[in-house]
TrEMBL record:
It comes from Daldinia eschscholtzii. This is FAD-binding domain-containing protein. Residues 5-344 form the FAD-binding domain. The keyword Ion transport does not apply. PANTHER family: BINDING MONOOXYGENASE, PUTATIVE (JCVI)-RELATED, TRK SYSTEM POTASSIUM UPTAKE PROTEIN. Keywords: FAD, Flavoprotein, Oxidoreductase. One of its GO terms (molecular function) is oxidoreductase activity, acting on paired donors, with incorporation or reduction of molecular oxygen, NAD(P)H as one donor, and incorporation of one atom of oxygen. It comes from the Eukaryota.
Length: 535
């Protein structure tokens, strides 16, 4: 039987794989997505969705529907030896987004949302299909898929993406990839259970340190997730509800009483990363590329954002709009993010979960004095949250982004596009609602006050853009709030806040990639720099 052909084969149907499928679907790239499991797990697994991830998922479907199914967290409460040490409030720290808070939600719900978004394009994960052989050559990749009922088929793809987790078959098939790291020595236990008589705010999650460490994540349905490190556990002893309650009573007495558990498990954690996210026509993303401690709730979010970075690049190359070498920028942009995450989460993990009694004593004394002082500063809290929320991710060092000469605003090529309210046809909306995932976007800012230019002048620039390059882009005109006249296609910058965020009092342009990051930015007077960049 002849091999079935497709442009992209995605191995792994979790959040990372389905997100990549969504990115390809909006560009109308032929693909298949397979998973060896017959059905999705009903376990909650990853719980936190960071604000930047919500922004990016909102490009595919109203992420507020996902928010409504979970529990927004406005901060963290630290406990030391059973006593409340400090509250860290994150509300109000970010003002340039429609999603300022962390969403606590079961991975099951996240996957339902992603599946719903994918179904709108007529696609779904093909289940019960395992990739048993993956062989690449100069022209493509040949993959053998075995179904759960023993039927084998051969698929021929231009590219294969491994979104198949820590034990990735795709990564193992890539002869040039290593996955270096090690396991943490601690034994961890996990419990999802109902809780009663709790005295804690249900919009906070708790981190508790003492002899051992404990984290409590409140879920929307009156249940909570408790994760703990065990000190000197009995060999191979399975955790019980009583184990968790004893640790709660000691480290977090305000948490309440656990009952009716839905999941109890023990596990070990690893920290590993690949030496490259690409090997020829094979790519890895998510846990197939990096696994680390859950400190900071970054893992699933990083995998989703790996896929958002890779998806549009695959589309451009497959459509013949960029050379194959353009795909190298996926590794160039995303691997430093993964490496930084490994290093940072490792440090956080070491401070929070050390089993050394001398270090524990020192840490607890230090935290008692330092934590309240540290979080008393809004700037310090904002810097921490910039990392945790993933709003701080940028690709400024990438070779495929740029900033025009003479431009000195606070936001540069490779940065995230911020969000503010604009007015279109008299109706207010978020600016990022304009930035769809299926194309590039050219945004022209008129400038403000005496520096502003009229819409007519902006349209002359657009004519230059359309006549002198072949790049496809949606065009958006953002006008000073004081503009005398606005056309049907123009948008008003409410309060001129968007101009302020970009630092653009003078007329400027912003060329935005499909993944919501800036490819090129500059003053409108330097528009030729963009045309040259595109050439």
């Amino acid at each position: 039987m002849a091999a079935q052909e497709t442009d992209v084969l995605i191995v792994g149907g979790g959040p990372t794989g389905v997100t990549l499928a969504l990115e390809l679907a909006v560009h109308k790239i032929p693909f298949r997505i397979v998973d060896k499991e017959l059905q999705r797990s009903d376990r909650s697994r990853a719980l936190g969705i960071q604000p930047r991830t919500l922004e990016l998922l909102n490009r595919h479907g109203d992420a507020q529907t996902l928010v409504s199914r979970g529990n927004l967290s406005s901060g963290t409460t630290f406990y030391l030896n059973g006593n409340k040490a400090v509250d860290i409030d994150i509300s109000g720290l970010v003002e340039d987004t429609a999603f300022p808070l962390i969403l606590i939600i079961s991975q099951c719900e996240t996957e339902v949302y992603l599946d719903e978004c994918l179904a709108k394009h007529g696609f779904a994960v093909e289940r019960g299909l395992e990739a048993t052989s993956i062989v690449q050559d100069a022209d493509g990749v040949t993959v053998k898929l075995n179904s759960s009922d023993g039927i084998e088929e051969t698929v021929r793809a231009k590219y294969v993406i491994g979104a198949d987790g820590a034990h990735s078959t795709v990564r193992r098939a890539a002869t040039g990839l290593t996955f270096q790291g090690a396991a943490y020595p601690q034994d961890f236990i996990l419990c999802d259970a109902h809780v009663r008589n709790s005295k804690v705010a249900w919009n906070r999650f708790s981190l508790c340190l003492g002899r051992g460490s404990l984290a409590v994540f409140p879920l929307k349905d009156g249940t909570c997730r408790v994760v703990a490190s065990r000190i000197n556990p009995k060999a191979d002893a399975e955790p019980t509800l009583e184990d968790f309650q004893e640790m709660l009573n000691r480290l977090h007495p305000d948490a309440g009483e656990l009952y009716d558990p839905t999941w109890i498990s023990k596990f070990y954690l690893h920290h590993r990363g690949v030496n490259s996210y690409r090997d020829g026509r094979l790519f890895v993303a998510g846990d197939a590329a990096h696994i680390h401690s859950p400190a900071g709730a970054q893992g699933m979010n990083t995998g989703i954002q790996d896929s958002i970075n890779l998806g549009w690049k695959l589309a451009k190359v497959i459509q013949g709009k960029r050379p194959d070498s353009f795909l190298d920028s996926y590794d160039r942009e995303r691997r430093p993010i993964g490496q930084h995450l490994l290093e940072t989460s490792d440090k956080m993990f070491t401070w929070g979960c050390s089993s050394n009694p001398f270090f524990i004593a020192f840490r607890n004394i230090l935290f008692t004095w330092v934590l309240p002082w540290f979080v008393s500063s809004r700037d310090r809290r904002a810097n921490i949250y910039k990392f945790v929320s993933e709003f701080g991710i940028n690709y400024r060092d990438s070779p495929v982004v740029g900033t025009a000469p003479g431009y000195s605003g606070p936001i540069m090529g490779g940065d995230r596009v911020p969000d503010k309210i604009i007015k279109s046809m008299g109706q207010e909306r978020q600016f990022l609602e304009l930035i769809t995932p299926n194309t590039h976007h050219l945004v022209l800012l008129s400038g403000i006050g005496s520096d502003a230019v009229a819409e007519k002048a902006m349209r002359e620039v657009l004519s230059d853009f359309e006549n002198n390059n072949s790049a496809e882009a949606k065009v958006h005109l953002i006008l000073d709030e004081g503009a005398d006249e606005v056309s049907v296609s123009g948008h008003v910058d409410v309060g001129n806040h968007l101009h302020g965020l970009f630092g653009c009092s003078k007329p400027s342009y912003i060329y935005i990639r499909p993944d919501g990051y800036i490819e090129h930015i500059g003053l409108l007077s330097q528009f030729e720099a963009l045309l040259e960049w595109l050439r």
